[in-house]
Write a structure and sequence with these properties.
Helix content is 33%, strand content 16%. The protein is an alpha+beta fold and 81 residues long.
Length: 81
């Protein structure tokens, strides 16, 4: 609550939800959760397990971001504008 009074937005980066620990303990105070999945690393089974756990914990999931994804444009050295 002290942090909320000092800032408009607070972002917390935690270990993966399936690893246990801080992520699930912080959920009661979260306004939203953004799940990050690493392309080529996060399997469908892991994603479904994380989704199920977040659903059971009633997490306010905002969406999913994929990182380290390769695109055809990136492999050709083309940058999006």
């Amino acid at each position: 609550s002290e942090a909320r009074s000092a800032a408009d937005v607070i972002l917390l980066d935690t270990a993966p939800i399936l690893a246990g620990g801080d992520a699930s303990q912080l959920l009661p105070d979260a306004d939203a959760v953004l799940v990050v999945a690493r392309s080529g690393v996060t399997t469908q089974q892991l994603a479904e397990s994380a989704s199920g756990l977040l659903r059971r914990l009633r997490a306010p999931v905002l969406g999913v971001a994929f990182n380290a994804a390769e695109s055809p444009a990136a492999s050709k050295g083309v940058r999006a504008k």
